[in-house]
Amino acid sequence: MQLDSLYQEIILDHYRTPHHAGLADPYDVEVHHVNPSCGDEVTLRVELDGDTVKGVTHDSVGCSISQAATSVMSDLVIGKPVSEGMATYEKFLELMQGRGNVEPDEEVLEDGVAFAGVAQFPARVKCALLGWSAWRDATAQALATQGAANEGVKNA
Amino acid sequence: MTTTRTFSSPLDLQSVRADFPILSRELAGGFPLVYLDSANSSQKPRQVVQAIEDHYLQHNANVARAMHQLGAEATAAYEGGRDKVAAFIGAPNRDEIVFTKNASEALNLAAHTLGAALKPGDVVVVSEMEHHSNIVPWQLACERTGATLKWFGVTEDGRLDLSNIEELLTENTKVVALTWVSNALGTINPITEIATKAHAVGATVVVDASQAVPQFPVDVSTLGADILVFTGHKVVGPTGIGVLWGRYELLAELPPFLGGGEMIEVVRMTGSTYAPPPARFEAGTPPIAQAVGLGAAVDYLSGIGMDKVAAHEHAIVEYALEGLKTVPGLTLLGPTDAKDHGGAISFALDGVHPHDVSTVLDTRGIAVRAGHHCARPVHERFGMQSSTRASFYLYTTPEEIDALVDGLGFVRSFFKVD
Ligand SMILES: Cc1ncc(COP(=O)(O)O)c(C=O)c1O
């Protein structure tokens, strides 16, 4: 098994100095996700500006893979339209589930390509997806509240 | 690394290991398997697998309800498993052995049936070092009945904190449910001492012996427990079977747990009456082949001698504790000496998350467990989210401990934490 392909320098860098770490105000929605089988936890805040991801901050306890993946995920979605973030997630998921047979798209995944090696460690795939699942959940909730508020405006 | 530490075990490890073909496996990269995850699930000797195979290939049928010759053979084989388990743990009466799916189901059985008599004001006592399987069923029972859950804390050195035992054990205390050996800390708890005090206030004592029965001789007739549970797959037996032992008079008073075939006496549309124990608690087709396998497993362990297994575990734990203490930046979770220490050692390594420790060890063929080991509260108690755990059994060699200690050195250099 290729240790160096799993623990790419980029991953270790993000792990040592995670981007967007530390919960910040203001935010629309905060979620707390756990990986019950191993105990990794992430608290994540999302702030939307219309359809754009304005801010993501997080506070997580977990392994190098989960922490680095959350850091890279934040970089990838901040400042982008929600739909683009979701599309990036699909690409990342495809890479993770590809058992090493998927060629990562660096245009889309940027530092996320460093996680290609994780796909060969099935037990660790969940680690790489934890931050993403928190972001998707928080964003969906934020959109739903926005939708409800807009309804309210229309109804008023 | 060559070792100067001494090791002496009463077991002939080479011949024991020959019974476990999996232990000779080579893993990716040509590394020999170093299996240090037996507290999670033990490996199986050939004798157990063969007994299961022989049952399926020669004697398979349903039990009790099948009236033909094979039915009789299968019933004899299943009930034979019960006899063997009863003898293995010193149960005075074979009807005190109830087969379940695993230890978790056995604990749920205990919590449901004992829980039926709970009411607001009653207290159930557990401890902070329990496996989730001995916490959640009691939380649910308390939610259902309005009873209150209380717990023994854990001291800084990983022992049960008995300093407030008088407050915890009062006339309101109906159930005390404790683990004998902690799967996370390795601590061996003074069950008999606590049971005596619990009985003095009229409480029923439930013991989670999932990590005890595999490791040392158990005699329920003198232990002081009213109910004791363990799980087949940790005693070199198959998955899919657990054991609940209960004092017969207690079992006879308890209501059923799951309803279905075999647990009844007479079923009428207006109501049913229930079979006496153990059948009352064994609804549906039981784990037949698993009972055969479990019987073979306890025969295997008895053949070797549980006193020798215990002596070996002790020697390995002592050796491992010494070895782990040489690893810089390693903090042991729980007792740091081998006295009253079961065969599992959890630890933290400065600067490296347990998942990363275990993945790096895994690439060298070393299988350990990383996470909270289904004991999140005790990790929280020590301000940790997870840990790495190495656990041992009758087939663990000192060379495997050396490989672990070397492997941890490699982990540290890989993550540059020097
Ligand atoms: C102390 C303890 N209790 C209960 C269990 C649960 O056993 P099972 O998963 O077989 O139900 C385990 C093992 O995981 C354990 O170590």
UniProtKB/TrEMBL annotation, chain A:
Domain NIF system FeS cluster assembly NifU N-terminal positions: 7-127
One family name in Pfam for this protein: NifU_N
Protein name according to UniProt: Nitrogen fixation NifU-like protein
Species, as recorded: Kribbella pratensis
UniProtKB/TrEMBL annotation, chain B:
Keywords attached to this entry: Pyridoxal phosphate, Transferase
Keyword Transferase found: yes
Any Pfam family matching the protein: Aminotran_5
CDD domains, A to Z: SufS_like
Reaction(s) catalysed by this chain's protein: (sulfur carrier)-H + L-cysteine = (sulfur carrier)-SH + L-alanine
TM helices/strands, residue ranges: none
Domain of life the protein comes from: Bacteria
The protein's required cofactors: pyridoxal 5'-phosphate
PANTHER family, A to Z: CYSTEINE DESULFURASE, CYSTEINE DESULFURASE 1, CHLOROPLASTIC
Family: Belongs to the class-V pyridoxal-phosphate-dependent aminotransferase family. Csd subfamily.
Protein's recorded name: cysteine desulfurase
Native species: Kribbella pratensis
